[in-house]
Design goal:
Helix content is 16%, strand content 45%. The strands form two sheets. It has a seven-stranded antiparallel β-sheet with strand order 10-9-13-7-8-12-11. Strands 1-2-5-4-3-6 form a six-stranded antiparallel β-barrel. A hairpin with a 2-residue loop joins β1 (8-18) and β2 (21-27). By secondary structure, the chain is α+β, with helices and mostly antiparallel strands.
């Protein structure tokens, strides 16, 4: 479980394909290192650390770690778009004794969205995203509500101007300068594909409503 409060970023140093899986090796930004089997959110995707090592990165010896994404994860997320040199948002799993500064994020990305507008606005940044939206997806809780929460590339954000039209969903978010600087939002442009995880509370409520409806019909 995560909170959507990104701690830092890591740079991809190597990508290896193995059948339908991809192994991503990244430079470790945590001085204390990472444990094998530790869960880390990468752009909002919960991945398991499978290897720690040291190797030369840009002419210097560095600590690196490796995570693996399976074919289904690659299909549903933007991890398959990653290239060597790209920066990924990181968040370690939340401990139960810490404040929940963001919202409940599972690290289970629902789908991707595409940036269709972005601009600076009086010191902050405005982004608008478009994603596929069908009646079935909405019934499963894949939607946004005004002033609700959404995780985009693992960043917990407040929803603005949600809309659904002609099979597409739309959501806007505003980013303060600090978040823009310390996450990979600063690399997002029009056309960039991002990961989106809808609020788990909305999914539970949508499922509950569907079960109630099925019970009434039966």
């Amino acid at each position: 479980m995560f909170s959507g409060i990104v701690e830092t970023m890591a740079q991809v140093v190597r990508i290896e394909q193995e059948q339908g899986n991809k192994h991503f090796t990244l430079k470790n930004p945590y001085p204390q290192g990472m444990g094998i089997d530790q869960s880390i959110a990468h752009n909002g995707v919960c991945l398991t650390v499978v290897k720690n090592s040291q190797e030369m990165v840009n002419g210097e010896m560095a600590n690196v770690y490796t995570v693996t994404a399976m074919q289904e994860t690659l299909r549903l997320t933007n991890l398959d778009d990653l290239k060597v040199g790209d920066w990924v948002n990181l968040e370690r799993a939340m401990s139960m004794d810490k404040l929940l500064d963001g919202h409940i994020v599972q690290g289970h990305v629902d789908q991707t969205a595409v940036c269709i507008d972005m601009h600076e606005t009086d010191g902050s940044w405005y982004y608008r995203f478009e994603y596929d939206s069908t009646p079935d997806m909405i019934r499963r809780g894949y939607f946004c509500v005004d002033k609700g929460s959404v995780a985009i590339n693992g960043v917990s954000l407040t929803v603005c101007e949600p809309d659904v039209k002609d099979g597409k969903g739309y959501v806007s978010v505003c980013i303060i300068p600090f978040t823009h600087e310390v996450t990979n939002f600063k690399f997002i442009n029009v056309g960039t594909r991002v990961n989106i995880e809808f609020d788990i509370i909305g999914k539970y409520l949508a499922a509950y409503a569907k079960y109630l409806e099925a019970g009434i019909k039966n």
